[in-house]
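PROTEIN DESIGN WORKSHEET
SECTION A - STRUCTURE
LENGTH: 292
TOKENS:
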């Protein structure tokens, strides 16, 4: 298991920051305590049991796969964790918004994969530096369980052409795949363990293979943006203020929820989803719903 990178007073040293900007990623970093990660997994799995057949307006999977921080307090707590934010500050500065928080789950011995892609292709914000993803492991992410693979330095590309494959084993909404042949030897396996996280740039080419292990591979994935980033495809987009100030007003701020699936939070979720579907499904060949 790779050793966790050391921090300077809980923050990224200049060397670590430079490494992020050179490689387009950084790992393994300490995000939350291992016990906290295991407790978060337990809470997630309790929610899966308690809410699967509840009378929610959308299938539970929709709330897990995007904007989970709007309806589940424990997800907002992870996204707003001060130790995580101390690290994020080293990448995007002291003013930080949470753009999204979501779960990527691969069940044991399943063929689910994530095709190689660049996140910013479908997010309507252009090829920006002011967005970073924290992928926080709640269970072991290893080559056997289908951890992510990154292509070093690929964030220096512009947004490259992608193709929608709609492959049923692909965890991405459109099965989007970058139209570049990525050599197996160029893939860096991002092995991380409960409580650790990796960071990646929105243009870093990445994906992941199937879970051949006996355990679920569960990650809580948080996307942080600088407030001066701006949605270009629709008039309104949403984010949660995590730290510092928003002097730009480019995002409508959403509150952290107080209890699981409170009716007002569920209504807000639905409002955001309708608008963000227009962003994420922009230019899609097939009409498909966003993670329903
Ligand atoms: O969890 C995975 O395997 C892929 C996640 C991903 O594509 C992302 O966090 O941007």
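SECTION B - SEQUENCE
RESIDUE ASSIGNMENT:
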């Amino acid at each position: 298991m790779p050793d966790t990178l050391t921090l300077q007073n809980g923050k990224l040293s200049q060397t670590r920051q430079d490494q992020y900007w050179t490689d387009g990623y950084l790992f393994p970093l300490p995000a939350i305590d291992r016990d906290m990660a295991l407790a978060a997994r337990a809470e997630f799995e309790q929610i899966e049991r308690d809410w699967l057949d509840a009378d929610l307006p959308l299938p539970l999977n929709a709330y897990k796969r995007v904007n989970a921080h709007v309806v589940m307090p424990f997800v907002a707590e992870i996204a707003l964790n001060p130790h995580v934010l101390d690290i994020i500050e080293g990448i995007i500065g002291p003013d930080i918004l949470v753009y999204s928080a979501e779960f990527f789950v691969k069940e044991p011995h399943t063929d689910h994969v994530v095709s190689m892609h660049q996140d910013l292709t479908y997010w309507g914000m252009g090829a920006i530096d002011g967005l970073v993803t924290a992928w926080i492991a709640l269970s072991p992410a290893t080559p056997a369980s289908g951890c992510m693979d990154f292509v070093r330095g690929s964030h220096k590309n512009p947004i490259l052409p992608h193709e929608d494959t709609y492959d049923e084993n692909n965890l991405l909404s459109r099965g989007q795949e970058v139209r570049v042949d990525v050599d197996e030897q160029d893939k860096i396996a991002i092995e991380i363990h409960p409580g650790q996280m990796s960071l990646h740039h929105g243009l870093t080419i990445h994906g992941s293979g199937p879970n051949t292990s006996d355990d679920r591979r569960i990650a809580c994935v948080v996307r942080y943006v600088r407030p001066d980033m701006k949605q270009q495809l629709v008039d309104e987009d949403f984010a949660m203020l995590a730290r510092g100030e928003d002097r730009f007003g480019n995002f409508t701020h959403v509150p952290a929820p107080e209890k699981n699936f409170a009716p007002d939070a569920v209504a807000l979720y639905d409002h955001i989803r309708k608008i963000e579907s227009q962003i994420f499904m922009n230019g899609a060949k097939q009409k498909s719903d966003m993670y329903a």
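SECTION C - NOTES
The chain has a mean pLDDT of 95.
Residues 34 and 195 are 5 Å apart (CA to CA).
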